[in-house]
Design brief:
Helices cover about 45% and strands about 10% of the residues. The mean pLDDT is about 95. The protein has a 7-stranded parallel sheet. Strands 2-3 form a two-stranded antiparallel ribbon. The chain has 15 helices and 9 strands. Helix 12 links the parallel strand 6 and strand 7. It is an alpha/beta fold and about 375 residues long. Belongs to the uroporphyrinogen decarboxylase family. Homodimer.
Length: about 375
């Protein structure tokens, strides 16, 4: 049953995601509800990370913290959760200490048999859905609410490595040593991601983002073999599942960090996220028209470290970023969502984050003709 929610008063993000021209670029920031905020750190003093994720009330509070602090400057809220709730739903234990740690990672394909064949997504991840519904109502229509999931390859990497890894040696060895078993695991993860993302829209998410944070660890061939097919499945099956359930077919964003933009664009998402190593003018040339002749929205892409460079550097680099995205769109502010090229880092001064947002408002807006 479709829920009743307050009327949205700021739809800038959704219009940009649909490829429309906007009066300025909508802006939000990956990890905008995070450790750089003193109010977040205060909450974490008395609550463990995944405890917050599993509490709809706490997750809503954390999600709302940057919306309250930067009132009128952020154009979206993103639900406070973590990509690793999917492996947890599959029966794997993950703790934050301080980074993610799997107590019993997958070592060989035989270990996959320890995982349940069927996952009741509503039962295992219902707390995320509850948090989305509560947050959507708490937002009271101020800005759209973003839901998200990790991508199958990135989730598989964590499940095998047991945490973060510089080389991805263990997980990439699986791809070469056990290619068919790897594909079977990726299919199982994809099945859950599809159900999870559809459930998020049912709960109130108005845009969905898929994070393939480790896409750049794969060669173009390996990305095309072990990531792209599953990303396409997610895009196709989420849209179809939403239609069948008579739910809104919300815009989809893919952030495949380090992957070829043309390959990422071919996955069929409405928006692709760019990191700071890419020039949007070059990306637009290879992505526009790649899917049904339409313009794919671009998201990004300021280097997060710029926020440590002082006000002069922030203003200069935001101005340069805005100019590049305007050039990519033939002088228009169109089909662009402003963001950092990756998540904001813990040492950023919240006032410098505010200045970044103010600069995007100022320099992404084109003069009235």
């Amino acid at each position: 049953m479709t829920q009743e929610f307050p009327t949205l008063t700021n739809d800038l993000l959704l219009r940009a995601a649909r490829g429309e021209q906007t009066e300025r670029a909508p802006v939000w920031v990956m990890r905008q509800a995070g450790r750089y905020l003193p109010e977040f750190r205060k909450t974490r003093e008395t609550h463990e990370f995944f405890e917050i994720c599993r509490s709809p009330t706490l997750a809503t509070e954390i999600t709302m913290q940057p919306i309250r602090r930067y009132a009128g400057l952020l154009d979206a809220a993103i639900i406070f959760s973590d990509i690793l709730v999917v492996p947890q739903a599959m029966g794997m234990e993950v703790i934050m200490n301080p980074g993610p740690h799997f107590t019993d990672p997958l070592n060989t394909p035989a270990d996959v048999e320890k995982l349940p064949r069927e996952v009741d997504v509503e039962k295992e991840l219902g707390y995320v859905f509850e948090a989305l519904t509560l947050t959507r109502k708490t937002l009271a229509g101020q800005v759209p609410l973003i839901g998200f999931s990790g991508a199958p390859w990135t989730l598989m990497m964590y499940m095998i490595e047991g945490g973060g890894s510089q080389t991805r040696q263990k997980s990439k060895t699986w791809l070469f040593k056990y290619p068919e078993a790897s594909k079977q695991l990726l299919e199982r993860i994809t099945d859950i991601c599809v159900q999870y993302l559809i459930g998020q829209v049912n709960a109130g998410a108005q845009l969905l983002q898929v994070f393939d944070s480790n896409a750049g660890d794969l060669s173009p061939y390996d990305f095309s073999t072990f990531s792209l097919p599953y990303l396409k499945r997610i895009a196709d099956e989420v849209r179809e599942g939403l239609k069948v359930r008579q739910l809104p077919v919300v815009p989809l964003t893919l952030f495949a960090k380090g992957a070829s933009p043309s390959l990422a664009a071919s996955a069929g998402y409405d928006t692709i996220g760019l990191d700071w190593t890419l020039d949007p003018r070059d990306v637009a040339k290879v992505t526009d028209g790649i899917i049904d002749g339409r313009t794919i929205t671009l998201q990004g892409n300021l280097d997060p470290v710029v926020l440590y460079g002082g006000r002069e550097a922030i203003e200069r680099e935001v101005k340069r970023m805005c100019s590049a995205f305007h050039d990519a769109r033939g002088g228009a502010c169109k089909a662009w969502i402003a963001n950092l090229g990756h998540g904001i880092t813990p040492g950023v001064d919240p006032e410098d984050m505010k200045f970044f947002l103010e600069c995007v408002h100022k320099y992404s807006a084109l003069p009235s003709s």
